[in-house]
Design a protein that fits this description.
Blueprint (H helix, E strand, L loop, with lengths): L2 E2 L18 E2 L31 E3 L2 E3 L9 E8 L21 E3 L7 E7 L4 E9 L7 E5 L1 H7 L6 E8 L1 H6 L35 E9 L2 H14 L7 E6 L2 E9 L2 H15 L4 E5 L1
Parallel strand pairs: 5-9, 6-8
Antiparallel strand pairs: 1-2, 3-4, 5-10, 6-9, 7-8, 7-10, 11-13, 11-14, 12-13
């Protein structure tokens, strides 16, 4: 089913104006078990005052992105974006992966994290904000395909509640336990109240550690490798990103909280699946 959807403000720089409604939808043969993809794991990430966080204007509307650690809650309509933008740069500069747990928002900091709840069924997900949009009146967030699937909003726009996860909540580990209770993350098949796996907050230190699976001249080479890594370990899917550096498309997974954890993951992939990865340290 094609979704009558989304502005081209998603998966583009905020300086590029939207050109109206266009058709979008899923790719054929999506990866299996997307409902089991873990939510984004919030961590403290530095927020630049410029770049995707500077004020911008789309369709005559001026937007002032949040750059501090301010709480944010809102209710409105959620939409999702898929194949039209898959593999294209987001406002953050990262390549959009419709199968990762990400979202676009008009004013939340890039990057930041938010809890999105579907009040119609009680399902909740945590997404990483790495793009700008949507720019339709009444819509407050554009979800990745997988995030929309887990919330059961793939059929079109739907009311949701959005709450930013602040630095203070991340540092205190409170993002997973609002009001002292675990925050449930539901798969489409699981009824509200079903037990779910609890995740652990990851707090960034001075360095971030990534695994790099190769550098490719063509984007489709990096995409093919991403598919291979995801099939080997579905849990890595939300961590996989394609970064364009020095004219090459580099497939990386991360960040990991420590070099040792990254090496352990690399050893597992090498031993069990014959996949080679190199450790990359970024500050």
């Amino acid at each position: 089913m094609l979704l009558l959807a989304l502005t081209t403000g998603c998966a583009t720089r905020p300086t590029v104006p939207a050109v109206g409604i266009d058709r979008d939808g899923p790719l054929p043969n999506p990866p299996p078990d997307l409902a089991k993809v873990p939510d984004a794991a919030p961590r403290v990430e530095p927020i630049r005052s410029g770049g995707p966080n500077k004020p911008y204007e789309v369709l005559g509307e001026r937007y002032e992105p949040i750059t501090g650690d301010a709480p944010y809650t809102d209710r409105g309509l959620a939409s999702w974006y898929g194949k039209k933008f898959h593999g294209r740069p987001t406002a953050s500069g990262e390549v959009y992966n419709m199968y990762a747990m990400t979202a676009a928002h008009a004013t939340l900091p890039i990057p930041s994290y938010a809890r999105v709840r579907n009040p119609a069924n009680g399902r909740e997900v945590i997404v990483r904000i790495n793009d700008r949009g949507p720019f339709h009146k009444g819509r407050i967030i554009d979800l990745s395909y997988t995030a929309a699937l887990k919330l059961d909003v793939l059929r079109g726009v739907a009311p949701v509640e959005v709450q930013r996860i602040t630095y203070a909540e991340i540092r205190a580990g409170l993002w997973a336990k609002p009001s002292g209770e675990p925050a449930p993350v539901f798969t489409p098949e699981a009824p509200p109240g079903a037990p779910q796996r609890e995740t652990t907050a990851v707090v960034a230190s001075g360095a971030n550690y990534w695994l790099q699976f190769g550098a490719f001249a063509r984007l489709d080479g990096a995409e093919a490798m991403r598919q291979r890594v995801a099939e080997a370990d579905l849990g890595l899917l939300p961590l996989l990103t394609i970064v364009r550096e020095a004219g090459l498309h580099r497939l990386r997974a991360g960040p990991f909280p420590s070099a040792d954890e990254a090496r352990q993951q690399a050893d597992k992939l090498r031993t069990e699946h014959g996949l080679e990865a190199s450790l990359v340290e970024k500050r």
